[in-house]
Amino acid sequence: MQHKTDYVLNYKKNIRSESTLMLILLNYHLPCFTPQLWGQVSLRMCTDGGANRLYDELPLLFPSDDPADIRHKYKPDVIRGDLDSIRPNVKECYSKMGTTIIDQTNDQETTDLHKCVIYIRDFTPDLDKTHLKILVVGALGGRFDHEAANIDVLHTFANVLHIVLLSEESSLTLLAPGYLHKIHINRSFEGPHCGLIPLGAPSTSTTTTGLHWNLSDTPMAFGSLISTCNILESDIVTVQSDAYLLWTTEIRFEP
């Protein structure tokens, strides 16, 4: 059994030095902790609709500051997508600031999140991908078909990249089978609730430590048992399964 360590982000301090972080903003309400993530990542990307969100919503988090100053301070490095959503004034603003804008109109078979993840994969050809974590904000909430598409991206890249979907209420990532996952929990903002949900196929055997209701070679499937409303009881949780599992934790963030 291989070991895989999944380091959990810390919004108020630096991420563990083992991780290289990159950020993607989607077209949904941005969490209030988005500015805290900005300085911790090495690349900041927006889908075209996410660029509108950044332009409109980030200044609202700093009501005492000039919106133009906030937009300049929190400008994306790259905007990538089919550009059907970005407003002309937003595109012009970020273009003048030096943001790279990539038109993917010719690709209508993948979502804008998928396009951004592909860019990051190819942007870092020499980086050991076990040290890379992609944080995606605005990924949860809103239309369920959009959420499902985002989860599909988790599944597509599960064995290649570590991607975490984030909202103000929860985080979501996908644990691949065949590993003993060691997950570091920051209980100052994570929990107490958490969950493990099989994706794509039932699990015939899942074992955990660090939870109030641990699993021991337990089968999980829709229509029988899935582990929802579980409780974090340790700073380290381990998960081992023969199936893909969605791992989610509750987030309680206080600015």
From TrEMBL:
<dbReference type="InterPro" id="IPR036759">
    <property type="entry name" value="TPK_catalytic_sf"/>
</dbReference>
<keyword id="KW-0067">ATP-binding</keyword>
<dbReference type="Pfam" id="PF04263">
    <property type="entry name" value="TPK_catalytic"/>
</dbReference>
<dbReference type="InterPro" id="IPR007373">
    <property type="entry name" value="Thiamin_PyroPKinase_B1-bd"/>
</dbReference>
<keyword id="KW-0418">Kinase</keyword>
<dbReference type="InterPro" id="IPR007371">
    <property type="entry name" value="TPK_catalytic"/>
</dbReference>
<comment type="function">
    <text>Catalyzes the phosphorylation of thiamine to thiamine pyrophosphate (TPP). TPP is an active cofactor for enzymes involved in glycolysis and energy production. Plant leaves require high levels of TPP for photosynthesis and carbohydrate metabolism.</text>
</comment>
<dbReference type="Pfam" id="PF04265">
    <property type="entry name" value="TPK_B1_binding"/>
</dbReference>
<dbReference type="InterPro" id="IPR036371">
    <property type="entry name" value="TPK_B1-bd_sf"/>
</dbReference>
<keyword id="KW-0808">Transferase</keyword>
<feature type="domain" description="Thiamin pyrophosphokinase thiamin-binding">
    <location>
        <begin position="181"/>
        <end position="245"/>
    </location>
</feature>
<dbReference type="InterPro" id="IPR016966">
    <property type="entry name" value="Thiamin_pyrophosphokinase_euk"/>
</dbReference>
<keyword id="KW-0547">Nucleotide-binding</keyword>
<dbReference type="InterPro" id="IPR006282">
    <property type="entry name" value="Thi_PPkinase"/>
</dbReference>
<comment type="pathway">
    <text>Cofactor biosynthesis; thiamine diphosphate biosynthesis; thiamine diphosphate from thiamine: step 1/1.</text>
</comment>
<comment type="similarity">
    <text>Belongs to the thiamine pyrophosphokinase family.</text>
</comment>
<protein>
    <recommendedName>
        <fullName>Thiamine pyrophosphokinase</fullName>
        <ecNumber>2.7.6.2</ecNumber>
    </recommendedName>
</protein>
